[in-house]
Fold these 4 entries.
Entry 1:
Amino acid sequence: MNRKTPSVFDLTPSEKLQLVEDLWDDLASSPSDIPVADWQKKELDRRKANLMRCPVASSAWEDVKIRVRSHYGR
């Protein structure tokens, strides 16, 4: 008998979304285990320093959502 090996590509869209959510939750449970490249650390340090120098240049999350939704009509 020649059975096809199950694949994630055979899942329904809702099953795929659930799988992604489960994987994300698993990764988020131990963030210290996620590798971060040196260039990413430097970029985060640069952005943090910029925010500390000029905190007014940042936007509140609610303001960002309003701008994005008004731009894309959602």
Entry 2:
Amino acid sequence: MSDAFKVFAIDDDPLILEIMREILEPGCAVETFESAEDCLPRLDVEKPAMFLLDVSLPGMDGYSFCRRIKDDESLRDIPVTFVSSHDTIDARLKGYDAGGEDFIVKPFAPEEVLRKIKVAQQIILSKKALEEQAKAANSFSMMMMTNMGESGIVMQFLGKLFSWNTEQEVAAGLLELLQSYQLEGVAQTRVAARTLTLSATGKNLPLEVSVLNHVRSQGRVFEFRNRGVYNCEHITLMVNNMPVQDPDLCGRLRDHLSLVAQGADSRLRAIETEEANLRNRAGIDEALQSIRESLSAMRQAHGQDRAASSQLLMDLEQSMAKAFVHLGLTVGQERHMEDLVQDFMKRMMELQDRGAEVFETLQQLSEKLGKLK
């Protein structure tokens, strides 16, 4: 059991705790507590891989307990999933402010709890992978602030922007720029039908996604408490620690971040257009191939029809020659009938030649379309 994924479930309802235990065991090692105060002494001895934390608790509530966890160096990287009976944006914002990673609404299904365990495991793996990147980025940001001014950081970002070919690169570049200003935040990109939410904590964390989906509709520039949100069609950038105590710095940063958000939006729009062009080109290639195959089949069918028509005309001519013997026609009448048949055969051959010319024209058109790609 020591190797099992350890979960601390904290809820003042013993029935909820029993349900949690039944859902998670034996795949997880579960310890249950009816209050935050009961759990605190245990943390001095054992640390879980994840917290399932009720919001409404006697004494210290779930939000306060989460903030205490996130303020502790030895506990802050442990994912916290809130469990609440209130599914409101205000409740989710409070959970996000407290540092939580996910949110479950009561009543919950067993499948949802198990899915949240998998999300927490992914968060842990993502955080480990990001630790070294964060160290390097912090070192880089200190160097940048030393060697460059505020405007220089923006110019460097814009210089790099159009070398990035994916939304992941654009979002990561925005986070790097925030770090250069000693800011923390989240970037959400929207390209075609894809949405990516990225922060230093990880990718597509459910609580961050929920909050970003809400603030993206709040206007071009939206500020609340010490947060700043910069919205464009393809990008939302949310800063969590705007220096509101320094109005001049805050105003300059607001201008810089509005500019970089617009630049990122332009690049994401270009990426979306480039992808659409590639899809269109693939469609043209497919259509041209279909045209070539159809022309080949039509040419073959036309050749077969021409051969069959020629044979039928020859048969007709031979049949008429035989029939003349029995019809008792005069030489003039026979010659007149032969002239009619010959004229008919000539017109038939002209029509077939014209069909061949049509196929040749279509073939040339297909080749010209192929050169336009």
Entry 3:
Amino acid sequence: MPRPLVARIDHAALRHNLALARSLAPQSKLMAVIKADAYGHGLLRVARALAAADAFAVLTLDDAVALRDAGHRQPILLLQGFYEAVELGEIVDHQLAIVVHEVGQLNALLETRPRRPIDVHLKLNTGMNRLGLPAADYADAVSRLRVWSGLGELTLMTHFATADEAAGVDWQMRCFDAITAGLDAPRSLANSAALVRHPQTRCEWVRPGIMLYGVAPNVETAPADLDLRPAMTLSSRIISVQTLAAGERLGYGGTFVAEQPTRVGVVACGYGDGYPRHAGTGTPILVEGVRTRTLGRLSMDSLYADITDLPQAGVGTPVTLWGEGLPAQEVATSAGTVAYQLLCGITRRVPVVEVNGVA
């Protein structure tokens, strides 16, 4: 009999979230960010579900080629561009767009003479200090690109560091607007948080990511408040029941000590499946739709649910780790991490079932 753990990917939820993102910026083109195996949901299955997107954004050349091989004809942007100039031949062959974020990268690009124009998203560092050209180099980079024979469409781009926090985006927008004043080109600014919270960032392109998967880009906001629907539900079942007497310990290290008689449901899911090992006692979990808590330190293949107040629960009772009825961001917050890590961390041994879509 197969292990009961499964990740269910809901195509209807993905399409719903895409439509919601589009409704926030109806005049913008929408670039769906599906990097990191579509945030753990599966690159090709998510691309099928989000086929109505105007473009896709991925990290690696391999992912972009896989999308082309699967028949996707939308623009595809490589979010870190190319790493070696030798990649440009394949980028041209597959008609991919690139982010240029560093002067050495720009110089390497301008030394080439591609047989087909390349669309370039020129990234400005407006204060996140991760990727992007310095403000002092940006206008010159635009000028150099515009006289380069290999340029297709030029897009001006930045990324926000605190769009989901109190600091907002105004401090970065002031920098972007000052540096790009007078540069006539499309702009790509809004990530999920900016798209939801900062209308001034809804320019020619928007780049929703985490919201497409049903996670609110701000941890203080419940997905339901934005009408987001979880695209992934990770579920399992109880495979054993233990009854602890007061004073007995549970699991590796005995970190949980029962203060009273406690019924424990052993659930088929552990850190070998991608559940965060650092999730301690009190992390929310649903047992047959009823909210309870995890107990103790989980193992590679199992974790523990408190079913003391759920007398009907026993071997075979269904459990939801996150997803429908239990937002991933709530589990992540309790575990001291972010929903991105939960979704991206699902391991290969977890079977995937697709619903409301083509398997």
Entry 4:
Amino acid sequence: MTGIAAIEVLIADVPTIRPHVLAMTTMHSQAVVLVFIQRDDGVTGVGEATTIGGLAYGEESPESIKINVETYFAPILKTCDADDVPGAMTQLGKHIVGNRFAKCAVETALYDALGQVQVKPVSDYFGGARTDRLEVAWTLASGDTAADIKEGERMLAEKRHRHFKLKIGKRAVADDCAHVTAIARTFEGRASIRVDVNQAWSREQAREGTALLQDAGVGLIEQPVAKADIETMAALARDFDIAIMADEALTGPDSAQLLAKASASDAFSLKITQSGGLSAALEVAEIAMWSGIGLYGGTMLEGGVGTAASAHLFACLPEFRWQTELFGPLLMTEEILEVPLTYRDFGLVVPNGPGLGIKIDRDRLKRFQRT
């Protein structure tokens, strides 16, 4: 048995390149939460538990993740075998309810350390990578039509992204849809367009907006209504040709089963944090594949650690019908990795070194770390 010697949790506030406007909040920086787990043999793994907008998005915040890992997770982990990651996660599951983001960071850190010891990439623990590159969409979220078009043109010219997601839901439905329509018409035939409403619409607004967006040639609508309103999700999926995607409603394998049974979505936004970890996210993906539901590789706008972890898992899956959106590090003004992740030819290169295949630059991290 290899024990766990130390657990450290840090929060770093990293500025974003521009305001990132969502239905529930506007982001000017991202609070990156990192969990470091040191084994008895001296090897340290790292995982990320980053979320969005404090408590505006979900029930976990950067501060709660830090104190819960330090107070409740650490004593349990120090009784576990660091070489038996599934066993350690089972022990946490027995004693800790919820805390999906925190559990994801811990599982990632354990696999990162184990991969370094066994000289294996994290993807090897989930069936092995099928690809070395993942296509990455970009979110246009300034809220200004002209600015979003200019940004999109630059992304196409630089061959960084050719799939764009627009954040809407703050304005009147007609105004939001006019904004999206103008952008969709501009990029018609050159880039795909999808939108994320972040649960902002009522049932009536969702029907109005879905009809307008379908006419505009938009391919997909992410979480148009409240996550509990599965009935409306199912009705939209049934009554419209445009794909309806579950995001906030998708909180792990149990919710995936429910959504699939109700035919309440055409696509799943697969997120390792929202699922409760890499293993749970793999279960969600398998449910989607068994049910004929398309996959979209989602993000919580994580930095390099969470993005690398997601890439390792996503690379093991046979298909992402709606690509991925692992662009989190590109939204931040500063890099906290010694060597940044590689983006080229509209995609992200999957790291292939031992563990996550990345290293934290501690000096850079200190510049943004909360004290």
